[in-house]
Amino acid sequence: MKKIISIFCLQFFLFAHAQELISSKVHSHNDYNQGVPFWDAYANGATSIEADVFLQDNNLFVAHNQSDIEPKRTLEDLYLKPLTKALELGFKKDKELFLLIDLKTDAVPTLNRLIKILDSYPTLIADKHIKIIISGNRPNPNTYSKYPHYIYFDHQELDTPLTAENLDKVAMVSVDFKKYSVWNGKGRFTHEDYNRVKNVIAQGKSFHKPFRFWASPDGNSSWKALLDLGVDIINTDHPYDCVKYFGSLSQRYITASNFSKVYTPTFKTDQKQMPVKNIILLIGDGNGLSQISSAVLANNGALSLTQLRSIGLLKTQSADDFTTDSAAAGTALATGIKTNNRAIGVDSLGKPVQNILELLQKKNFSTGCITTDEIIGATPAAFFAHTIERGDVAGISGDLLKSKLNLFVGGGASYFKNKNIDSQFSMLSSISEIAQTSSPAVGVLVSEKGVPSVLDGRGDFLADATRNSLAFLKKKNKPFFLMVEGAQIDSFGHANNVAGIVAETLDFDKAITEALVFADNNEGTLVIITADHETSGFAIPQGNVKKHEIEGDFITHDHTATMIPIFAYGPQSNKFTGVYENNVLFHKMLEVLNKEK
């Protein structure tokens, strides 16, 4: 005799903390195809679990098609018993759950059999945090109220009115996404599709119940689009990825809180074959193209940096590794040689190498270093120190005291306790004093260790330090070389913190503005802006320029080997275009200064 077969979909819904899932709930579509049905989705915080279940020989089997039925894969074994065990063990016991059962054939007899089975699970049907919801082929909506108190329904007829008592038995409203849009989740909705989808969501929400699409696109872009449209339950075959995406979205989708006023340079001497007297080298630590792009998009589509015309790319590999660290990269920029990771101011054999500041000091140049890091950090240290180990705090701080720098600004006062730093530098109490002093060599240590971030209230420290330091160096009536580091773009990259990356990159642009203004007012000044490496594999999949919103994503908490941009402005800036190794920058700078190594 032909078997009587009914198909269900079991949907298990977990309401998670608002910070984890924003406002939408995650639906594990065809959950029985996961590696471990129920437990994978439940343990990873998915907000719904789906299983097609067939009624055969008075049993409920979980399968996608009738031909896939296996005797041991029953609704009870795969879902009801595990859920009961999870509750007994106290796993997420107080979270509200939706148990959605999608009847594909013969609604009434299948539902009656389900009720019979559920009667043997008193813990489930009595739990106030669990709702059992019938979907698919449901009984007549006019009969909803006749079913047991623990049975609810997924309403799918948007034009079918319900009495108040039957509406009370509706737990959610669901429709087929493909009836309203052909969007596959790549790119964006067309205007027509967007309006149709928006309207049907509004119609569904008129029932004042959670709204769900089935057969919707399945990926980051579609999840975010449906979230923004107000869909309450997101359909996915990738519950872990979806939960993870929503769980990190509040940290990755940010609104910029600081901005950079864009300066348009005069270009009067830009790319002209004129003598270069001064160089201002600005290094954004970890500042790759996506970091710059995020700041551009958050800043109404432009930065002072993006006004420049001479642009190139640097390759950053160190002597001993595919991916550089700041010590090796800083050394390459400062000395013109590739060295090993962690090494500062020495070659790959550990031999000290003269850096560009030391070379220029011998040729009557004034020199200075500014950073939003500790002054003994790897990047600034590459311009005055020599050690095989970037963690050699005593050696690096000692080299600063022995250096012929005219200026330094940064954090790390605690490293100079009892080291008589006043004998080498006039130590100032604030950066505003720098422009006023006539001392030959000055220093400002703004913190005991690390410098606060922009998000922590640092303000315009970097731009102010750059402006005051340029005024100080100009008063000496000598050529100069000033290195300015925006260090914490890197720090927030390591932390995978989008808000920090955007804030620090915008802050770095303010310092760039000060350099460009100085160059326009002081002929013979060349401004170079680059990075030591990229950090985090930062990407910006979407956002909103008008609202200053950026969504960021990451592939790592570490550095990457991607090339980094270099920009130049002023006389002979065109010589810095092209693609070349980072250590070549040193030689290009000496070339335009007409100085031999």
UniProtKB/TrEMBL annotation:
UniProt family annotation: Belongs to the alkaline phosphatase family.
EC number: 3.1.3.1
The keyword Hydrolase belongs to this UniProt entry's keyword annotation: yes
PANTHER family xrefs: ALKALINE PHOSPHATASE (PTHR11596:SF5)
A Gene Ontology molecular function term of the record: alkaline phosphatase activity
Domain of life: Bacteria
A Pfam family of this chain: GDPD_2
UniProt protein name: Alkaline phosphatase
UniProt keyword DNA damage, yes or no: no
Species of provenance: Flavobacterium flavipallidum
Span of the signal peptide: 1-18
Assigned keywords, A-Z: Hydrolase, Phosphoprotein, Signal
